[in-house]
Amino acid sequence: MQTDESTLATATRHVAEGERIVARQQAMIARLNASGAPTLDAEQTLQVFETTLAIFKRHRDDLLARPHGVDHLKTEERDVT
């Protein structure tokens, strides 16, 4: 079981890692473009990464927006193993 603070820390870590993954994929697409290689697969993968990052950000923001912070997580969220 995670504590409230570790839930927020985990969500924040997921956002940071997602941002790194998106940046790395964007750089890969730029290199592929520069070399004249096809980018369709890389661009589709980037869309998946960006969608996932948006979910991570929404989760973090939802935690931050709770009236009393993250200390009032629902019981089922606390008991996830």
Quick tags:
mainly alpha; 81 residues; 3 helices
Structure, explained:
- This protein is mainly α and 81 residues long.
- The chain has one domain.
- It is 77% helix and 5% strand.
- It is built from 3 helices and 1 strand.
- The protein has helices spanning 4-35, 40-65, 75-78; one strand at 67-70.
- The longest helix has 32 residues, at 4-35.
- It is elongated, with a radius of gyration of 17 Å.
Work out the helix count: 3
Number of domains: 1
Distance N terminus to C terminus? 6 Å
- SSE string, helices as H and strands as E: HHEH
Low-confidence stretches: none
Task: Compose a concise summary of this entry.
The chain has 81 residues and is mostly helical. The chain has one domain. It is 77% helix and 5% strand.
